[in-house]
Amino acid sequence: MQLIINLSKFIFLAVLSCTLLITWYGEETEVINLVPNYYGEAAGDDASDSIWNTMRSEFRLDSRTQSAQVQAEIRKMIADPVRLYNILKASVPYIYFIHEQTEARGLPAELALIPVIESEYNPNDRSNKGATGLWQLMSQTAHELGVKVKSGYDGRRNVIASTKAALAYFNDLGQYFNGNWYLAIAAYNCGQERVKSAVRRAGTDSFWSLPLPKETKYYVPRLLAVAAIVKDPKKYGVELPPVSNKPYFEEVKVAKPVSLDKVARTAGVNIETLNRLNPDYTHGSTPKSENATLLVPVEKAPVVKAQLGA
């Protein structure tokens, strides 16, 4: 009788274990499947009207994907594909304009991906050192580059002003380092003089051999890793968010001060979208200025213009 009881307990535990395992793995499979479901429809990043397709055709840098440094950064990124997807998705309002500006200046298209590292395409991002905006400009740097920062307005948060300033700086760095973009990108992170000094001390202009700050040693490989993934997402099992190769916003002149809330209500513009496009107006309204402008979604521009008498 004891044997039968023990056998019954064994069978019961075995069945219970199988049930738990089925439930566990069933749930786990469901969690894993959340990733492809999250992306929804095919991203279509190979389509001719995709910004990613256009950008990758203009990449100029050797991503050095065989190097240990770049490989390490790639592994970090593809380990969390949903986070990477969200970062690239955050670029949707800005990436067309940024790429357009790199193209106009003859700069490597990879530079349009710098905000992935700097701010994750969050114009409101602010570091503990005070660097602000998509390009993480410090107040002094912004002043030197002609970006205004004053009460009620922070041009470092303005996608047009900050992008033009950052790319003008990159253009200068590229010329200073004779087209060595690894050094130019490193200098954007830690400073021109620091890179120049490292080159002099090391006796080489190879970024990979320079005694630079730890952050900078990771900075360049991280950008190259992002570029490598954008260039060949299928190779790394990554989906890119769909982003059409066309303007997202239009700049509209503002004749007199107006609150963003009012524009959103009367023109039927989503207030979150309007705030995301105009985070430079820190008080939520345009200042009294002849040069004041608003960035609005392209399809809403005619309505906003009519409302503002632009």
Question: Please, could you describe this protein's structure?
Answer:
There is one protein chain. With 310 residues, the chain is mainly alpha-helical. The protein folds into two domains: 51-236, Lysozyme; 249-308, no CATH class. Helices cover 53% and strands 5% of the residues. The chain is built from 15 helices and four strands. The chain starts with a helix and ends with a helix.
Summarize the structure.
Residues 96-208 form the Transglycosylase SLT domain. This protein is mostly helical and 310 residues long. The chain contains 15 helices and four strands.
How many strands in all? Answer: 4
Straight-line N-to-C gap: 93 Å
Q: Could you give a short account of the major beta sheet?
A: 2 strands, antiparallel
Beta-strand residue percentage = under 5%
Query: Helix count?
Result: 15
Q: What's the number of domains?
A: 2
How much helix, percentage-wise, in residues?
Answer: 40-55%
Report the top-level CATH class of the largest domain: Mainly Alpha
Mean pLDDT: 87
Please tell me the CATH architecture of the largest domain by its name. Orthogonal Bundle
Shape designation: globular
Largest sheet, spatial ordering of strands: 1-2
Q: What fold name stands as the CATH topology of the largest domain?
A: Lysozyme
Instruction: Tell me the radius of gyration.
Output: 25 Å
Order of helices and strands: HHHHHHHHEEHHHHEHHEH
Structural class assignment: mainly alpha
Enumerate the spans where pLDDT stays under 50 for 5 or more consecutive residues. Answer: 1-43
Protein name: Membrane-bound lytic murein transglycosylase D
Domain Transglycosylase SLT: 96-208
Pfam families: SLT
Family: Belongs to the transglycosylase Slt family.
